[in-house]
Please model this.
Amino acid sequence: MTVEMREGYEGTGPGAITPDGCAVELYERLSVGDEPDIIAAAVPAGAHILELGSGVGRVTRPLLERGFTVTAVDESAEMLARVRGARTICGPIEHLDLGEKFDVVMLASFLVHTGDEEVRRGMLRTCAKHVAEGGCVLLQREGEDYHANVPRERVDPNGCTIRIVSAEPVAEGVDSVLAEYVFPDVVWTQRFLSRALTKEQFESALAEAGLKVDAYLTPDGMWVRAVPAAM
Model:
C-alpha cells in the first residue's frame, strides 16, 4: 500500500511506513525502556491514561499490566491494529476532541518537538482539553544535546543499533533528523523534522496551552509532569 508522506518525513525498510516515516514492524521489535516505571511513579495507581501517539502499544502493554486503564490514540490504523487490551482511537492528535476528561494525558515520543509549531500548539491544546480536574499531563522532551550531539548511537536491549546520523537545519529552529535502526537481519531508516526547544521555550509553549510544569521527573529533564495553570 502506498502512503502519502508528510513533507520532510520519509522512511525506508520492510512493512508499512506511516506518514511520518515510522515503520510499524520496527516498533513491534523495539523494546520498551524505563518509561512505564517513570509513568507509574508519577501518577495515581489505577489511573485512566489517554496515551497520545501510542504507536503499536510498546508502552501501552506494560501500563495495562500495571493496572492502568489506557485509551490509545494514533493517526496510523496500521499501528493501532497491533494494540491489545486498550480502547483505540485513530486520528490526528492535534484535532482530537473526545468530549471526555482523563486522570492522565500522555504525550511521549518527543512529539512536542514536532517541526510544525501549529501542530505542536494543537497537540498541547488537546492535552489541556482532555485532562481532568486534579489530573496531570506527562510529556517527554528531547535531551539538551539532542541536535548537537550527532552522530551518536546506542544499542537497544534487543540487539538493534539505534543511530542518529545527522541533524541538519532546514528552517529557523527546525532540523531534519536522520535515524537508522540496524538489526542483524534488517535495517530501517526514518527522516523527520524536529524543533529544538530550550527549557524556557518548552515552558512557554505549555503556558500558551494553559499548562505549567509541576515537576521534572528525571534528572535529565526529559520527562515532565504538567498541570493546568489555574491549579
